[in-house]
Amino acid sequence: MCGDSIQGLATEVTVGHLETFNYPGDYFPNTQCTCRLETIDPSAHIVLYLLDLRLNSDDCSGSDTDWIEYMTTEQNWGHGVKLCGQIRGEPIDTNGNKVYINFRSDEEIQGRGAWLKYLGENGNEVGQYQCYQS
Ligand SMILES: [Ca+2]
User: Fold this and answer.
1) Inside any domain, residue 82
2) Strand pairing partners for 24?
3) For residue 82, what are the domain limits?
4) From the CA of 106, how far away is ligand 1's center (Å)?
5) Centre of ligand 1 from the C-alpha of residue 30, in Å
6) Other CB atoms within 10 A of residue 20 CB
7) Distance, CA of 76 to CA of 107 (rounded, Å)
8) 10 Å Cβ neighbour count for 96?
9) Is residue 39 part of a domain?
């Protein structure tokens, strides 16, 4: 995510993946990145799977560290569902047909980052829009 600055619909897939820029190498400091997913069928839900997560700390509840979150409506940063406490490999039903995924890193200490799988429930296609620095 956020290896480029192009915006717009990039792919439509039934199963897709997102990873932090430079994964599995360390992500970069001072990053703010948003990715948008949207099902083609507006009544379908997007399901996420956290496959890997290594941030600078296991506790991403603070505001002064690195974190990744998702939200189904555009809200302010830090008001989504943080993925840090999620069990890897378990399905996360976002209950939404649009999902915004935000990743943020601060200036100190980086990690491997995050690797996510996403899909539309019942085989629905999901459009992945280009991620952008935010
Ligand atoms: Ca950090």
Assistant:
1) yes
2) none
3) 9-133
4) 5
5) 8
6) 31
7) 21
8) 17
9) yes
Q: How far is the CA of 70 from the centre of ligand 1 (A)?
A: 19
The total number of structural domains that make up the chain = 1
CATH number assigned to the domain comprising residue 90: 2.60.120.290
Ligand 1 centre and the CA of 133: distance in Å? 17
Query: Please, what's the largest Cα pairwise distance for the chain?
Result: 41
Q: pLDDT of 66-111, one tens digit each?
A: 999 999 998 888 889 999 878 899 999 999 999 999 999 999 899 9
Say how many Å lie between the first and final Cα of the chain, rounded.
Answer: 12
Residue 8 has pLDDT above 80, yes or no: no
Find the length of the chain: 134
Does residue 4 fall inside a structural domain?
no
For residue 125, the Cα-to-chain-centroid distance in whole angstroms is 17
Indicate whether 2 belongs to any domain. Answer: no
Paired tokens of 59: 């506790």
pTM of the shown model: 0.89
